[in-house]
Amino acid sequence: MNGSSMAEYKNISSGNGSPEERQVLGGEISVKNAFKFFGVTKALNGASLQANLGEIHAIVGGNGCGKSTMAKVISGVISVDSGEVSVLGHMPTSPSDARKHGIATVFQEVMIADEATITENLYAGADTLWSKSISTREKNARAKSMMSELAGLEIDPERLASGLSLGVKSWIAIGRALLWKPKVLILDESSAALDFDSTERLFTKMRELRDQGSAVLIVTHRIAELVRISDRATVMRDGVNVGVLEKSEITEKNLLSLMTGKSETHEKTELKPIVPKSSQVVLKTTNLTVWPNAEPINFSLRRGEIVGVTGLEGQGQDLFVRALAGVITPLKGTMMVQANPSVRPKEIRNLYEAKAHGIGFVSGDRKREGILPNMSIFENLLLPLYPFHKYLGKINLIAWSELEGLFDREVKRLSIKTGPRSNLITSLSGGNQQKVLIGRAFALRPQILILNDPARGIDVGTKQELYQHLRTFVEAGNSVVYLSSELEEFIGLSSRVLVFRDGSIFDTFINQDVEPVGILEGMFGKQRSHSDVGKQTADDFGGQPALTKAPHRDTNLIKENIEWVKPQPKIRIVDSDTARGKDNSAGPSQDSSGSLMKIKIRYSDFADTAQKR
After folding, report:
1. Is the dihedral of CA 235, 238, 240, 242 positive or negative?
2. Closest listed residue to residue 86, CA positions, set 134, 128, 52, 133
3. Which of 1, 130, 143, 243 could, after both became Cys, cross-link 157 (CB 3.0–4.6 A)?
4. Do β-strands 297-302 and 281-289 pair in parallel, antiparallel, or remain unpaired?
5. What is the distance between the alpha carbons of residues 533 and 535, in angstroms, rounded to a whole number?
6. Sequential DSSP letters for 104-146
7. 499 in helix, strand or coil?
């Protein structure tokens, strides 16, 4: 959108204020000794920030450090309890007041009205009750042009937002802020739902604004991104700024040192992805389609495996993992699960059946598919467990003491920074809200975890903790499907990564081929030659049967021929002093004296155990 057209758009361009005023102010964004309390929680505890026009300034820190609160103070959403705030010589008192003075903010939670069209969302706030800034036809034309430029997609501007992906919704929120031609643009985790290609387009816009003399404040947990894009960085910890880094000083080592308060004194241990030791299939799709006319997806997940899933925005990978979890119904095909080898495979047709057969799901879109905003932290973490912790039969009294123990365990295990457990979940930072959802999934003790961008909005330290929890999870014989747009997440975690294009699997990377450059090329449609892919040997999978390859047909490169495990009797020793409770499928055992031990043979019904769990 050009400058003249924006002038027609109610003079939204926010360079308001005389040249003399700007010269006196020096273009500074200043927060000094700011304090902000939410009950007993100290969101800001004497924090300060200095940023200038013509720079991209990052605000960095761990979950709950106060960086999003700082962004909201600058944008006028909340006021400080004490301290000084000056943005272009003005102290914003509300979002509308901030907008009048050239401040636009894209918040961490995507603020989109699902029942409104793309155009209506983009131009929200542009009109008064009695007048329109420009005609509806002109708005639609500009909205279509803007979404094509930002999202790289041709989208009907009159389409309702409810059916759009989280990434496209993020672009609408970003586009709405850019329409105002801000002098100060604040991006709070705005790239969290964007893939690599989309992030590059966002970076281009940020640099354009900087070069035009605007200030861009970026709040992000993606350290690799801020190292590339930031001119300066303010690091926060526990509500206080603990350091400011210039461009040459912005490195992962320096950032982590300030964020954690610890200096790295040794080299990082390079983790190797866990290679499954079993060929047993626990989840299998046959001729599954999530897009009309797309290649069918034939996929198998093995016990003890972490499979990565990625692709450019809107290539069907999100629909695929949601279908695996039973959240949506695929257009065609079947999904079968056999989390327990002693039970025959069962078909999954909905979320209830998926849950009953040991499949857990964590969504990156916590606002829409995760948190219960009107409930407490405690309820959000443990509500699904209430039916399994009760007493007095039909009276159904909840065993609160048991649940409190579980709550304390998960909070400690995931390092959730929380106030009183009775506080609303919305009192937590976005990253800590995401930790609660991850804790809820683990507390349900699934055998298969389907994760849809679970690390969105959590800091690098928490990501490392999550990766370790997942490694422990699969080492115990469980399995994971992990969707992410951050390619670095797969390194040292996944032994197999599926790249989606056109609604199906375009390429599969295994073991040593799991590296960012090759995966990125696959995301953009570069085909590897058959010799590049190479045939997998039995040794690649710990001596287990190899995957067989089909000829490359642009999609669905890998065809997997691994059979289900036939249910076998489960033998449990019930009265041996030397091996009580040990599973054995080889038949009756003998103790050291040579006498047969009593045994009991029974088939386990996983559905029943799931209900009792």
Report:
1. negative
2. 52
3. 143
4. antiparallel
5. 7
6. EEE-SS----TTSBHHHHHTTTSS-SS--SS-HHHHHHHHHHH
7. strand
For residue 70, give the 3-state DSSP assignment.
helix
Q: What is the DSSP letter of 93?
A: -
Judge whether 301 and 325 are in contact, CB under 8 Å: no
Read off the pLDDT of each residue in 279-301 and give the average, rounded to a whole number.
92
Residue 397 to residue 315: CA distance in whole angstroms? 47
Q: How far is CA 359 from the centre of its chain?
A: 18
Residue with tokens 């100290």: 42
DSSP character string of 37-50 = EETTEEEEEEEEEE
Buried b (16+ CB within 10 A) or exposed e, 355-382: bbbbbbbbbbbbbeebbeeeebbbbbbb
- Alpha carbon distances (Å) from 287 to 331, 333, 496, 566: 10, 5, 20, 22
Let me know if residue 117 belongs to a domain: yes
- Say if residue 20's pLDDT is above 50: no
223-253 pLDDT, tens digit per residue, is 888 888 999 999 998 889 999 999 999 988 8
Domain boundary, last residue among 445, 475, 490: 445
- Tell me the mean pLDDT in the region 115-128: 87
Same domain, yes or no, for 126 and 171?
yes
Distance CA(509)–CA(549), nearest Å, equals: 12
The pLDDT of residue 577 is above 90:
no
Residue, of 42 and 298, whose pLDDT is higher: 298
Q: Residue 12: what pLDDT?
A: 32
Judged against a pLDDT cut of 80, whether residue 129 lies above it is answered with no
Rounded to 5 degrees, φ, ψ at 71 are -60, -40
Please tell me whether residues 523 and 389 are part of one structural domain: no
44 φ/ψ angles, rounded to the nearest 5 degrees: -125, 130
Which residue type occupies 457?
G
Structure tokens at 551: 């000829």
Task: Quote the domain boundaries for residue 404.
Answer: 373-445
Picking from 406, 427, 445, the residue at the C-terminal end of a domain is 445
Measured between alpha carbons, how far is 45 from 4 in angstroms, rounded to an integer? 44
Residue type, 252: E
Is there a single domain that holds both residue 391 and residue 490? no
Please name the amino acid found at residue 451.
Answer: L
pLDDT tens digits, residue range 456-483?
767 777 788 888 889 999 999 999 999 9
pLDDT at 132 over 80: no
- CA distance readout (Å), 455 to 19, 70, 436, 484, 579: 44, 22, 12, 8, 41
CA-CA distance, 351 to 355, in Å (whole number)? 6
- Residue 364: inside a domain: no
Are the C-beta atoms of 57 and 231 separated by less than 8 Å? Answer: yes
Residue appearing with tokens 């997940």 = 301
Q: Which residue has the higher pLDDT, 400 or 241?
A: 241
pLDDT of residue 389: 74
C-beta of residue 61 within 8 angstroms of C-beta of residue 2:
no
Q: Is the pLDDT of residue 99 over 60?
A: yes
Which tokens hold the place of 371? 């948190």
DSSP assignment of 222-274:
-HHHHHHH-SEEEEEETTEEEEEEEGGG--HHHHHHHHHS----SPPPPP-PP
